[in-house]
Amino acid sequence: MATDKAAAVRKQLLVVDDDRLVLSLMASGLTDAGYGVTTADSAEEAEAWLASGERPDLAILDVRMPGQGGLYLAQRLRELDHIPFMMLSAYSEAQIVEKATQCGALGYAVKPLDIPQLIPAVEAALARANELQGLRETRQQLQRALDAERNISVATGIFMIKHRLARQEAFALLRDTARSQRRKLADVADDVVGERESAKLPPR
Prior knowledge:
The chain is of the alpha/beta class. It has seven helices and five strands; from the N terminus they run E-H-E-H-E-H-E-H-E-H-H-H. Strand 3, helix 3 (about 70-80) and strand 4 form a beta-alpha-beta unit. Helix 5 (about 115-165) crosses helix 6 (about 165-180), helix 5 packs across helix 7 (about 185-200) and helix 6 packs across helix 7.
C-alpha cells in the first residue's frame, strides 16, 4: 500500500483497484490534481488500512476485484462511519449501476479512465458527501434537542409528583436546581429521569 504525503492536499482519497497499472495512473493523476492518495489493490487490503483508524474523505472503488469485490467494500464503508464512495468499472451495465446506487455510491465512472474527466466526478462526489454529512449532523442535533426537551418535560412531571407542585412551579424548581448547580437544565433533567428509571429496576 502506498500513501502520498504531499503537504498541500485538499482531500484524502482511498483508491482501490486490482489493476496495478490503473491504480498507479489514478494515484499519479489525482496526486497531481492536489489530492492526498492512498491506494489498495484489494478490498481486503483496504479493510486492513481502515482498521488502523484511517478515514478518507472519499473512496474510489473498482466494482470487480478478486476476493471481496467493490460492492462488498462499499457496504463496509457505509457501515463504517458513513465513509463516502464512488464506483469504477470496466462495464456500464445498468444492473451494476443500480447496485452501486443502492449501496449509496455518490458517483460512477467507466474505465478506461481519463483523469481530467474523473476529477469533476470526484469533486461532485465530495460536494455531495459534505451535503449528506451536514444533513446527518443537523438530524443528530434535532434529535438531541428533542431528547432534551422530552427529558425536561418528564423531569418536570417527576418534580410535580415528588414535591406536589403545579407544572409551572415544578419547572421553576428544576430550573433553579440547574442554576444552583451551575449546570445545563437538560443535564439536570437527564439525572432526574435517570434516577427515576434506576429506581424502577428490580434488584438483582
